Amino acid sequence: MMRKLLLLLSFTLLSQMMVNAQCTPVPFSGPALTNPDASQGIPPAFATKVYSEIINLRIPADTLVAGYPLTIDSVGIDSVSGVPNTFSYVTNSATDYWQGGTFGCMVIQGTPTMADTGTYTLTIHAKIFLGGNPNNTQVHTVDYDFKVLDPATIGFNDVEQEQFVVLQNAPNPFEYKTTIRFQSPQTSSLQFDVYSIDGKLVHSEMIQAEKGLNKIEFVKGDLPSGLYIYQLKNDIYNVRKQMIIR
């Protein structure tokens, strides 16, 4: 009885970690301030299914205002709007602010209901503090097209074929093996990595994706129970999601 109680408690704690887990920033280059950026988009959510999507943030060290360079003291996330209240966000910063010249990340998460199905504009509202003056601020927004789909009636054929979409692994949590399905708009090579919650790389392999529906069968091997992050990436795409080994 005690063993069952401990297992139930462990599973409850792991499930709570999956919903409220923070992220580890992954540095990236280029002009975009977010990765994926608005043009790449983020995957759709499915009603009644747990959703968790990591967005990496690049905080520039300086910017131009009216043609004059100014240092960026810090950038913070004020809010995320435009989506049902079944969604929320967490960041890797206790204050949701980062110093200029650094990287951060945030997790869009939630479990939408059937009433939430539809098309939305998910907007990230950021505040930028400039030039050592707390009164000198700018507001910056990033808009993502975002959908909540009905899993009973909508599949990959109903998702835009030109999108790179990674679905949540299933089953999740899992004890031995889980399946990760994803859609690729083109034939390409992808790096499939799995990280422990403390950022240690525990699995890595190259995947040859075909245009259309693909799947990865992941066997836990000797990995202990816990929360893990899996990532599919190449020069164009970089998507991370979380999974639990029970």
Could you characterize the architecture of this molecule?
The structure is a single chain. The chain is mainly beta and 246 residues long. It folds into two domains: 23-154, Immunoglobulins (Immunoglobulin-like, Sandwich); 157-246, Macroglobulin (MG2) domain (Immunoglobulin-like). It is built from one helix and 17 strands. It has one helix at residues 2-20; strands at 34-35, 45-46, 51-59, 62-65, 68-81, 87-91, 97-99, 102-110, 118-130, 137-149, 165-166, 177-184, 188-196, 201-209, 212-219, 226-233, 238-245. The strands form four sheets. Strands 2, 4, 5, 7, 9 and 10 form a six-stranded mixed sheet that branches. A four-stranded antiparallel sheet has the order 1-3-8-6, covered by helices on one side. A four-stranded antiparallel sheet has the order 14-13-16-17. Strand 16 (226-233) and strand 17 (238-245) form a beta hairpin. The radius of gyration is 19 Å and the shape is globular. The relative contact order is 0.18. Mean pLDDT is 84; it is low at 1-20.
